[in-house]
Amino acid sequence: MKIKERCVVVIPGWELMSYFSDTTNVCWFLQQDLAEAIKALHREIGNAATEERYIVVGTGSSQLCQAAWFALSSLSEAKPLSIVAAVPYYSTYEEQASYVQSQLYKWEGEARTFNKPGPYIEMVTSPNNPDGTIREPVVNRGGKVIYDLAYYWPHYTPITRRQDQDLMLFTFSKIAGHAGSRIGWALVKDIEVAKKMVQYITINSIGVSKESQIRATTILNELTKTCRIKSESFFEYGYEKIKSRWERLRWVVDKTGDTFTLPNYPQAFCNFFGKNNSTFPAFAWLGCKEENDLERLLKEKKVLTRGGDRCGSDKKYVRVNMIGPNEDFEEFLHRLLTIRNPNCFEP
Ligand code: PMP
């Protein structure tokens, strides 16, 4: 809102009508300006390597995740290829991997106990949705790893290294909150994987909205331009905002006595901010000390969350959104403060 004039995008009705953007590029529907904006932002933040990589744009990283599964499983000899993730995992992976009943891949759930021989895909989400932990692969038997780095930005977590994995997913949704634009990108090392991902998106949606790409370009460029100017940097703003929300949530949890638990996160040196920081995840992994159905308890109090069971975990945990509108967050804190003893809850 403070820099609103600088993020206005005007698109004349006669512009960007074609399916195509750049037919010389592997990702022929990627606008060149967006590719440049993505590279510039990663360079400035230092969170991921873009050199010697193909950028594949998608309708959100959700589409890219499915494109990557299609690509890796099509190129694999073993089918269906197992897909695993350490619990608690982002519940959408399970839904997306299962609903198509594909013969190419199969959701196998918890990575820590996965013991089928042969190739597999492991999803590594870091920081993790839903519990904010910093993650590494756990299977380590030479399978393919997809790094979902949706939250690897300095307002959420210290940037401790420049990620340089073979297949990394990012999204416009979680940087400054533009989930509605539905823009995500994959940084892909292997051209064959990139081509297969492009094939998937070609068949699935014949490319990605040009209007969304243009808007994302303007906003990403603005984030890059201002990221070192303390008073204008979105990352400074976002960091202060989410830090203060976490501090207040911890205060409220403390006030409710022994009722709830929250994870603690270690500090680490952030190369972007140049100081030691903690992680302030976009979701709070709220637990309940007694055995309980915490999602149901909170729903009774008009707080909507996602139950831990959907993330392969326990019903005594829920995932709470920390990055919604101010009023929603204030109301959530207020409602949480009024729950003192979940054992009094009668279904
Ligand atoms: N990965 C993770 C870990 C997410 O949390 C989300 C959004 N909740 C996505 C992917 C999907 O993001 P997009 O809006 O880009 O489809």
By CATH, the architecture of the largest domain is named 3-Layer(aba) Sandwich
Shape: globular
Q: What order do the strands of the largest sheet run in, or round the barrel if closed?
A: 1-7-6-5-4-2-3
Q: Any idea how many domains?
A: 2
List the helices and strands in order. HEHEHEEEEEHHHEEEEHEEH
Structural features, described:
The protein has helices at 32-45, 60-74, 91-99, 191-205, 210-226, 234-255, 294-300, 326-337; strands at residues 54-59, 81-85, 105-110, 120-125, 144-148, 167-171, 183-188, 260-261, 268-270, 275-277, 283-288, 306-307, 317-321. Strand 9 (268-270) and strand 10 (275-277) form a beta hairpin. The termini are far apart. The chain folds into 2 domains: 18-226, Aspartate Aminotransferase, domain 2, CATH 3.40.640.10; 234-345, Aspartate Aminotransferase, domain 1, CATH 3.90.1150.10. The strands form 3 sheets. It has a 7-stranded mixed β-sheet. A 4-stranded antiparallel β-sheet has the order 8-11-13-12, with helices on one face. The chain has a two-stranded antiparallel ribbon with strand order 9-10. The chain is built from 8 helices and 13 strands. It has 347 residues and is an alpha/beta fold. The longest helix is centred in the C-terminal third of the chain and has 22 residues, at 234-255. The chain is globular. The structure holds 4'-deoxy-4'-aminopyridoxal-5'-phosphate (PMP). Keywords: Pyridoxal phosphate. This is Tryptophan aminotransferase-related protein 1-like. Residues 2-338 form the Alliinase C-terminal domain. It comes from Raphanus sativus (Radish). InterPro entries: Alliinase_C, Ethylene_sulfur-biosynth, PyrdxlP-dep_Trfase, PyrdxlP-dep_Trfase_major, PyrdxlP-dep_Trfase_small.
